[in-house]
Amino acid sequence: MDCHLHTVRSGDAATTPEQMLRCARSAKLDVIAVTDHHAVDAAKRMQDSAIEYGVRVVVGEEIRTPLGEIIGLFLQERVPYVLPLAEAAARVHDQGGAVYVPHPFDPNRSGLGRRGIDQLADSGLLDVIEVYNAKMTAEVSNQLAASAAAEFDVPGGAGSDAHDPEGIGAVFMELDDFSDRDGFIRSLGDATIQGHLYAHSKRFRSRKPTQFGSARKQYTP
């Protein structure tokens, strides 16, 4: 599974829905989470067409809040942006979704940082921390995220954060199959991460492929 992907519906990505499904099949991904910025319509439409590609789509959304971005997974409808963090996360939970915290310590993007993670944890709204994101400029940002996941005893997720077809599956997770939010979160406890940092744009520097251990634990690249 690649937990973090963007189509053209995000407004800053080059991948069409059909391209994403073709690339997911080529990368031998079983499940993809389509997490467009402030939109779920493309992901919802992809769920039916994904069947012919042998791929399953989890509907997600990357949501901007005043403290930084979160991702809602297993959504039924869009969550508005710029809501207070706790309200946005609560709306994800109200739909039976999971709150997934992407790139929390990336200095170049809108990560929640420690303040936002603390607020979610205190509110009981923290489900998953992204411990490996392929677009990091430095491994330390992923390591900090892995440490936070271990500290708060929440599972770690991983995704390519691909905005172009070539980046799809740059990082993925191997985990037991699941059918819903709760099964997904349980499966993350024994998941493994494989992949590499990938330069989705010229300002990001590629790294050699490597393999990581449990998503729940801190790893050494």
TrEMBL record:
Residues 1-67 form the Polymerase/histidinol phosphatase N-terminal domain. SMART domains: POLIIIAc. It comes from Microbacterium profundi. InterPro entries: PHP_dom (IPR004013), PHP_domain (IPR052018), Pol/His_phosphatase_N (IPR003141), Pol/histidinol_Pase-like (IPR016195). This is PHP-associated domain-containing protein.
